[in-house]
Amino acid sequence: MPPKGSQKLAVMLCKFSDTTDVEPASPQFYRDMFLGPGGLSSYWHGASLGAIDLQGTEFFGWKAFPETRDAFVAAQPSRWGKILRAIEVFGVDIKKYSAFVAFFNVGVDDGGNQNAGVVAQPVDANLTFLAHEIGHVFGLQHSFDQSMRKAADWSAPGEYFDLHDLMSAMAVHSSGMPPYAPKGPLLNVVNLEIMDWLPSSRVLTMSGNSSQTLTFDLVSLGHPEIPGFLAAKIGDLYIEFRTQDIWDSGIPRAAVLLHHRMDVNSVVIASDKATWNTEWQPGQTYGPTDPVELAVNGGTTVLIDSFDLPGKKARIRVRRTARSQKFGGISGILVGGVARGGNGWIITPSGKRKPVPPHSPYVAVIEWIAEAIEVEEQLFSQTQRVVPPAAKGRPLA
């Protein structure tokens, strides 16, 4: 089950028999980094839309292990082994905590262990690293883009390339503003849905196969205190709006983001596959725009209409067109041209263009397409404005 409410961690500050004089920061520094203003608890409260925080977290150390650093690393090659050894040395009651963070005074390896804890070293005293690894402890997986790029030899294609999402690790659009930098960004709405942290009342959902055209506003994901929709779900397409402030202060500019869900991972959709830019800006359109293609094959078209940056809102127009049922008798023929009363043309599966004379049996199909295109264009020019129900915003910590 995804976590809800306060997640009580045990943070253990560890040193070794041959590094007893090394303490990178005071215990109060780590306490403030986790629980103080602008710390990890505040981050998780904001990133989870108020679903969780880290209040109640307790701190232990600095305490020296009886073994040397090298002996410890040799005896505990795995992250979970390192965490268990720290729990043993500090005598921590594991039943009292949701997870564990073993912070070492010198380099020993770092990273998260799913559903268990985090191993950290001095360079990891920042919010982006710690929040990412704690995200794994909570059950989150890495996020992806659509590319075949690999961040490392061992990573999967596209893994770590959603730069607006915390779960793409250290290459993300984080902020360098102190304290505890780098920090941010937020989680995308697919990850929020996976964790059951995205209230259904804050999501505009379009489902089914019927044609529909809507205009609506999305509130910036970093400002849930503003009433309105935080996300839209159009079939399997997720839409969100992000602004350059608070935990997203490191993103390049305000942008709409589009995602697909891939089981327990999210995949961000590029606005420009030449550069793999994933920021969608006013005037850009996702999906089919050709009226013939929409009339025949159906599809979803998303137009980024405008941004209201002072109001923290983006206006979105969506046209969803059902697939035509008119072509059952002429399977395999693609319509390529339209003319009233005939004299149109078709493209066959082999790619040949053939004229359609006025008395052809396909004239009725061509006329129907012309009418369907007119209907589609009228619908898109007279969209229905969607006003969200009153929604109680969650205050930011």
Set down the secondary structure blueprint.
Elements: E1 5-6, E2 9-15, H1 27-35, H2 40-47, E3 52-53, E4 58-64, H3 69-75, H4 79-90, E5 99-104, E6 111-113, E7 117-120, H5 127-138, E8 144-145, H6 189-194, E9 203-206, E10 212-219, E11 231-234, E12 237-242, E13 255-262, E14 265-268, E15 285-286, H7 291-297, E16 299-308, E17 313-321, E18 334-335, E19 344-347, E20 353-356, H8 363-381, E21 384-385
Parallel strand pairs: 1-3, 2-4, 2-5, 5-7, 8-14, 9-11, 10-21
Antiparallel strand pairs: 6-7, 10-17, 11-12, 12-13, 13-14, 15-16, 16-17, 18-19, 19-20
Helix pairs in contact: 7-8
Describe the model.
- With 397 residues, the chain is of the alpha/beta class.
- The chain folds into three domains: 5-139, 3-Layer(aba) Sandwich (Rossmann fold), CATH 3.40.50; 198-322, no CATH class; 328-381, no CATH class.
- 20% of the residues lie in helices and 25% in strands.
- It is built from eight helices and 21 strands.
- The protein has helices spanning 27-35, 40-47, 69-75, 79-90, 127-138, 189-194, 291-297, 363-381; strands spanning 5-6, 9-15, 52-53, 58-64, 99-104, 111-113, 117-120, 144-145, 203-206, 212-219, 231-234, 237-242, 255-262, 265-268, 285-286, 299-308, 313-321, 334-335, 344-347, 353-356, 384-385.
- The chain has a six-stranded mixed beta sheet with strand order 8-14-13-12-11-9.
- β13 (255-262) and β14 form a beta hairpin.
- α7 (291-297) packs across α8.
- The longest helix is centred in the C-terminal third of the chain and has 19 residues, at 363-381.
- The radius of gyration is 27 Å and the shape is elongated.
- The two termini are 24 Å apart.
